[in-house]
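lol forgot to send this yesterday, sorry. struct tokens for the thing we talked abt
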């Protein structure tokens, strides 16, 4: 006999349910009855679990555990932009293949494995459940180095918002920019921002 649904963690995968002895038929019956919500293919959350503040990011973390939330998606979490990304942007180390995720829609960036963990942080996507995300400093630098793809206005607006934060670290911004080979553009953008 399968364990009751409420014995499983708040968020769980099909694999976890199977390991707990839950038959797929029972899992999908729970979904159809509204006892669990399917966040993404094979990722479920109890309907009565505490509200997830970032359910899409939570789903991504379970589908692609090595991935890191980046760029505009990270900027939105860190309140560095007013843009609401239509895709969850995530980074994976160059050379790796992330899971194919159709929902939530994603955009994958391949970052150099040597600097992949630079600025790695976490955010609570649901009570007690953290998701890998780049910190505000790395996020601003990534937006600056990808400005031709993501838009100069997004990069500059994120920089200005970052500099208004009480925890802003312009020197750390320059160190990170140097490590990611975008020091010149970042220094010029900082000079313009400080002149305003």
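and heres what i got for the seq, position by position
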């Amino acid at each position: 006999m399968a364990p009751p649904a409420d014995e499983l963690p708040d968020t769980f995968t099909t694999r976890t349910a199977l390991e707990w002895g839950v038959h797929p038929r029972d899992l999908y019956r729970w979904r159809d009855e509204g006892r669990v919500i399917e966040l993404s293919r094979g990722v479920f959350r109890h309907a009565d679990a505490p509200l997830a503040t970032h359910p899409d990011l939570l789903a991504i973390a379970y589908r692609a555990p090595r991935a890191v939330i980046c760029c505009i998606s990270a900027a939105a979490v860190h309140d560095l932009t007013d843009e609401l990304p239509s895709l969850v942007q995530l980074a994976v180390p160059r050379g790796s293949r992330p899971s194919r995720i159709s929902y939530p829609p994603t955009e994958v960036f391949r970052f150099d494995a040597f600097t992949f963990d630079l600025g790695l942080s976490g955010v609570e996507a649901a009570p007690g459940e953290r998701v890998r995300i780049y910190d505000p400093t790395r996020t601003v630098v990534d937006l600056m180095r990808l400005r031709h793809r993501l838009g100069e206005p997004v990069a500059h607006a994120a920089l200005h918002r970052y500099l208004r934060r009480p925890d802003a670290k312009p020197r750390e911004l320059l160190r990170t920019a140097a490590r990611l080979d975008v020091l010149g553009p970042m220094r010029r953008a900082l000079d313009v921002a400080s002149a305003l």
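The first strand starts at residue 11 and ends at 13. anyway ping me if u want another try
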